[in-house]
Amino acid sequence: MARRVALVTGGNGGIGTEICRQLSAAGYQVVTTCMDPEREGIREWQQALQEEGVDVSWVQCNVSDFAACQTMAEVVESRHGPVDVLVNVAGITRDAFLHKLEKTSWDAVINVNLTSVYNVTRQFVDGMRSRGFGRIVNISSVNGQTGQFGQTNYSAAKAGMHGFTMALAKEGARKGVTANSISPGYIATSMTAAIPEEVREQIVSQVPAGRMGRPEDIARVVTFLAADDAEYINGANIPVNGALFTSF
Ligand code: CAA
User: Fold this and answer.
1) CB-hemisphere CA count at 13 Å for 127?
2) What is the pLDDT of residues 87-104, one digit of tens each?
């Protein structure tokens, strides 16, 4: 069988890069989207991975733009073949208390973190259904489960991803297409490095594990959910948060 193709949106970010590494190590042909190749230094990123023996292709796409996603899907499938695994990772924060939150920051976070999941998944789900195989993994957040100071926009988008995931899981269940979400806690990446230091320290002091998580902690769950034999795990949310938020 040809190698399965995995598309990772925002695969060159902190969590995304590790997802690309682990999917590649698991034998997938991995493609990432990136929004601005020059500004993000995507060629250098690709080269650095290649030196580690990790082969990842990239395609330019603004995932908040539906038409751009249509074009991206055509490019990816013509170069690599049908996408079997889609990991929606692309996300941003624009933190501010609601009484200070600008409309532009609301729109940006909803568009990049939530509408993008529709924009991208919509391109591939039809093909997955007709081939009888698909794995969709949405990277949400503990803050979509609990809410967080300064994150009405982000918490709303991340909670929205759960609703999307559960509905899509039901739609794909008889077609071999699963949809699951992962809710990372505070993972050491540039996104959490941007939190004011005192606030970050205070948050980390509340994590029972006593430390932030690592991108590897998230990537191992992605490869688990992406596997061919993971079909009955569908519509689930897997928290990976060092016991910061526990529920059943
Ligand atoms: N817990 C408890 N109190 C908090 C708090 C928190 N997490 N965040 C803010 N506060 C309190 C502050 O202590 C402060 O209290 P006082 O008025 O008594 O001093 C009050 O709220 C106002 O805070 P600031 O002075 O910092 O106000 P600000 O307007 O300058 O900034 C903020 C507010 C944007 C929320 C800022 O505090 C902040 O960036 N907090 C971090 C938010 C956060 O956790 N973001 C997560 C980003 S990473 C991510 O999202 C990845 C993921 O999925 C987990």
Assistant:
1) 17
2) 999 999 999 999 999 999
